[in-house]
């Protein structure tokens, strides 16, 4: 059985430094062998490859942090009922490979009602948005949450959660064409980015009070505008860096707000197994009830075309999926 991995041995442009290689498989007691089916390419997958976290990443490294697969082998006889089940093999980096070895306690079993494309993207964006809304932000009914990159996958999740959890969302977008669609989805206000007027529009909409919280995916000047719109004692949470530029943290710390960077891995590393499972069950239920809808169409590339997939993900900053069914394991 051959395991094909997308691995990087140096930091740089993903389409240049990621290589398709064969790696051996060694299954130890308590572990499960998962045949990967599909995995998304997220910004959070690409940022480490660029070297942003070089201080804590040991090379070589298999890329990818989420995806869906099928259990094909177990080490404990009592786990044989898991064979054939679709699962999310998480908490261990390296989902961009044809086979993934994971501890059975970290597996999330996917309900049969959840399709493969949806399952592949159930971790990073939904869990991040859910935890920020329910654990990080002290939101009251009607509070406003402000987001930039308003057309991103996670912004769309925040908008849907606003209806479930009874808060309001203001999103900033770069193009007028997104206004109608995001308003229909449930955004309270959609602002087309303008360096001179964006902040004024947000303050006018909130009767000069500002927003209860802001979630920054962009960094740089866009993030600083978000921070200036946060009311005193409100919260600013950075979850992305699409611009490639940090916000001016020294400026943010002069504001009467709480500002921090949110890392999903900190939660994943410390949470109890009971809570780990509970969060996914809550999100699965929202999907099954039709209250939460994730991306349903997106470009899908076979793993053999990974360079083209990575180049498109880099250039267009949109979600791309890798399909692992196309690689022979013999």
From TrEMBL:
<dbReference type="Pfam" id="PF00107">
    <property type="entry name" value="ADH_zinc_N"/>
</dbReference>
<comment type="similarity">
    <text>Belongs to the zinc-containing alcohol dehydrogenase family. Quinone oxidoreductase subfamily.</text>
</comment>
<dbReference type="InterPro" id="IPR011032">
    <property type="entry name" value="GroES-like_sf"/>
</dbReference>
<dbReference type="InterPro" id="IPR036291">
    <property type="entry name" value="NAD(P)-bd_dom_sf"/>
</dbReference>
<keyword id="KW-0521">NADP</keyword>
<keyword id="KW-0275">Fatty acid biosynthesis</keyword>
<dbReference type="InterPro" id="IPR013149">
    <property type="entry name" value="ADH-like_C"/>
</dbReference>
<feature type="domain" description="Enoyl reductase (ER)">
    <location>
        <begin position="12"/>
        <end position="322"/>
    </location>
</feature>
<dbReference type="Pfam" id="PF08240">
    <property type="entry name" value="ADH_N"/>
</dbReference>
<keyword id="KW-0443">Lipid metabolism</keyword>
<keyword id="KW-0276">Fatty acid metabolism</keyword>
<keyword id="KW-0560">Oxidoreductase</keyword>
<dbReference type="InterPro" id="IPR051034">
    <property type="entry name" value="Mito_Enoyl-ACP_Reductase"/>
</dbReference>
<dbReference type="InterPro" id="IPR013154">
    <property type="entry name" value="ADH-like_N"/>
</dbReference>
<keyword id="KW-0809">Transit peptide</keyword>
<protein>
    <recommendedName>
        <fullName>enoyl-[acyl-carrier-protein] reductase</fullName>
        <ecNumber>1.3.1.104</ecNumber>
    </recommendedName>
</protein>
<keyword id="KW-0444">Lipid biosynthesis</keyword>
<dbReference type="InterPro" id="IPR020843">
    <property type="entry name" value="ER"/>
</dbReference>
């Amino acid at each position: 059985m051959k395991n094909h991995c997308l691995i990087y041995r140096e930091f740089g442009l993903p389409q240049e430094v990621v290589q398709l290689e064969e790696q051996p498989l060694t299954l130890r007691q308590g572990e499960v062998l998962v045949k990967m089916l599909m995995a998304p390419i997220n910004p959070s997958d690409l940022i480490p490859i660029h070297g942003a976290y070089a201080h804590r990443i040991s090379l070589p490294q298999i890329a990818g942090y989420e995806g869906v697969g099928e259990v094909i082998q177990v080490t404990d006889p009592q786990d044989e009922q898991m064979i054939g089940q679709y699962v999310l093999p998480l908490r261990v980096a390296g989902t961009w490979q044809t086979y993934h070895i994971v501890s059975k306690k970290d597996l999330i079993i996917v309900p049969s009602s959840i399709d493969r494309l949806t399952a592949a993207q159930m971790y990073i964006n939904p869990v991040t948005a859910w935890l920020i809304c329910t654990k990080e932000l002290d939101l009251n009914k009607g509070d406003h949450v402000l987001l930039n990159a308003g057309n991103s996958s996670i912004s769309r999740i925040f908008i849907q959660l606003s209806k479930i959890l009874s808060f309001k969302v203001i999103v900033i977008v770069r193009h007028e064409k997104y206004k109608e669609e995001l308003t229909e989805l449930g955004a309270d206000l959609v602002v087309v980015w303008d360096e001179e007027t964006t902040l004024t529009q947000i303050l006018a909409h909130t009767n000069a009070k500002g927003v209860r919280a802001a979630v920054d995916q962009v960094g740089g000047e866009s993030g600083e505008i978000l921070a200036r719109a946060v009311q005193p004692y409100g919260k600013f949470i950075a979850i992305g860096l699409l611009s490639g530029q940090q916000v001016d943290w020294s400026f943010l710390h002069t504001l009467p707000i709480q500002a921090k960077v949110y890392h999903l891995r900190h939660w994943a590393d410390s949470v109890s197994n009971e809570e780990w499972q509970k969060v996914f069950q809550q999100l699965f239920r929202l999907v099954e009830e039709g209250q939460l809808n994730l991306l349903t169409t997106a470009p899908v590339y076979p793993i053999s075309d990974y360079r083209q997939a990575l180049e498109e993900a880099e250039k267009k900053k949109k979600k791309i999926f890798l399909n692992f069914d196309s690689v022979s394991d013999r």
